Structure formats: structure tokens, C-alpha cells
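=== RUN LOG ===
request id: a7f3
mode: sequence -> structure
chains: 1
length: 76
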Amino acid sequence: MRTASSYHISIGSPVDYEELVAYVVIRGQHVALLNQDRGADDIRVEFLEESKIGSGVEFDTLIEALQAAKKILLNK
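=== RESULT ===
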């Protein structure tokens, strides 16, 4: 079972991107970055190489976290 505390979303503004990005952190590990440089209708997900989650991430937790990140990024 998932809980909201199993992941969190951080918003940032790295110099490599024109728009804000959302970082997806699951169990303390940075897993993915969502960017909106191509517009709100073309959100891109970049999986971060530095994420070493061991046995992986629960699918439903990842999907829930990605959806939450998109919602936060687009202020919806």
C-alpha cells in the first residue's frame, strides 16, 4: 500500500531548463524530473541516472508520483 509520505515532489528552476521542473523523490531517492519546456501539452519525463533504488519502485507509487508532479507543475 502507498502513502503520500512514500514520495514527494520538489519544484526547481535549474539553468538547463527554460521553465520550472518537478523532481520526483521516492523513498528519499531522486527518480525522475518532469519538464515543461515544450509546453503544458508536452510534459517530458527524464529518469535520473543517479537513482539507484535497488529492487525498483512500485509501479503504482511511481505513476501516482508522476501524476502528482504534473499537477503541481501545471498548478492544477
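=== NOTES ===
Residues 21 and 35 are 5 Å apart (CA to CA).
The mean pLDDT is 88.
=== END ===
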